[in-house]
DUF354 domain-containing protein
Amino acid sequence: MRILISVGHPAHVHLFRNAIAKLRSDGHDIAVAAVRKESTIALLRHYKIDYEEFGIDREVLLQKALDVPLRDLNLLRFASDVKPDIIVSTGSPYAAQVSKVLGVPHIAFGDTEIARTVAKLMIPFTDAICTPSSFYMDLGQKHVKYNGYHEIAYLHPNYYKPNASILDEIGIKQGESYSIVRLASWTSSHDVGESGFGFKTFREIMDFLEYLEKWGKVVLTTERVLPSSFERYVYKIPTHRIHDLLYYANLYVG
């Protein structure tokens, strides 16, 4: 079987990477199409997954909307070459729309209830939407719920073993306390109308980080551009090591 998988976020790479390896070992042909967003491309390269890039993530909502026809066209061209029997994504409207043009099934593996706009563009062209049983929305007859979570696909003990060497990279001894703080950009399409921390100034963010330092080192990961004064909290962690960093942390805020 020829399967085309569309990824548009680093988490999508983790979700599908073990399935890709298993499907290939079983003799299936797997092609991957990717949108360049955050560390998505870096992860694909790290896991030696060949891919075709069909778009770049945009921060401004209007730019995202204007990019839709181009992404659809780029993905359609790639898919026409691949000639897939089925297209799989996490709910990509591009993958769904291209599947309809090619006349092949599209299966979506979603877990984000707030992605309402994306769902409206995806569901009409999708054959099945598979979500964890905890997903509280009802997406209709195409909705299939399963007892599990996306994270099990890459954090189950069969696939993941923590590596304590990550502590050396942040200057922490095993057993010492540290916290991770993540500051999102809030520019994704599913972030429209949503909000996170109520920080209004960089000073408020700094005050919060300094408060957390009472309980140990603070490691900051951010999608935002911050002043140089925040550099002491930012460490150059290889993108594929983020789960090791989370495993040994005492607190995650994000």
Residues 61-82 form the longest helix (22 residues). The mean pLDDT is 92.
